[in-house]
Design goal:
Structural class: mainly alpha
Oligomer: single chain
Strand content: under 5%
Amino acid sequence: MKMRSRRNILVTLLRIALGAGLLVLLFSQAHPANIREVFHVTTAHWPWLLLGTLLTLAGLCAGAIRWKTILAAQGIRLGAWKVFEVFFIGQFFNAFMLGACGGDVARAYLVMRETNSRKTETAATVFLDRAVGLFVVIAFCCVMIVFRIPLFLDHQGTRGPGLLMILFLVLAVLGFFALFRRNRFEHWSFFQYIETTRLGPLIRKAYDTFYLYRQNHRHMGMTFALSLLNLAFLTLACWAFGKSLLIPAGLIDYFTLFPIITVMAAVPLTPGSLGVREGFFVTLFQALGVGSSQSILLSLLVYAAGTVWSLAGGIVFLIWTVREGRPVTEEIRAVKNSL
């Protein structure tokens, strides 16, 4: 246990170092005077900053409702307000708990405790929430790539990410086909072998849970629609921040590039994808003639808005622990032990 804890700390420190290094590298390529000038411009246009922050909240709320829909499809009944509380607590854990104790673990644990539901079914709802949301974004990216094909053919910086989105879509479709197809355990030798292992019953239970969701077409349709709404609000938030920076890009440009950045930043190479996300903003928005100073600050504004609502999730978590009569440290320890 101690060895695993040390390894987690080491990995976390390496991720922090990587993120810091990438940020230093990006800022070194932008002239300090340009960054100061862009910063003064955006503070002068604070109403756009406020709008972007509120649109970020709207996007997160759409994500919370999507998860509630998935919980309902699994027969896990939790009140709307309670779902919002747990969802934003998860945002807080994602942003500020840098070890293995992430927001997904916190969400699964708190729902299990509130509803007395089983661990596998609850964890499956969190996984499905992530998977469906990511699949919708990837599919949307590919639609926009086809619609804006010259932008991806004429610029080297957009060509690679565009090809990756198409590859991700193919892999995602294959993954969903394998996950939601009936009788995988009966007809595929690979799954038959897995079922003989010690983890077999657990994997079988998770598989049955996923398939149950596939059969509920109404909930699945709502989940996809809410995923699009989540993406739309977050993209509009990015657009509002861009307006505060006087970035000369149209709304369609944001709907083309921001979803790609969202997918690429989903890989947790650094805490909060700091450095990675900024690099993709610089690379992709360069195709629109946007300077690196504006792109970096745009990315940081997007991150800051999410952090604001993650801090709000921290306040919700404090209220939760007071209501439950448990110390904060004990609650965090309980979440860690649920892994």
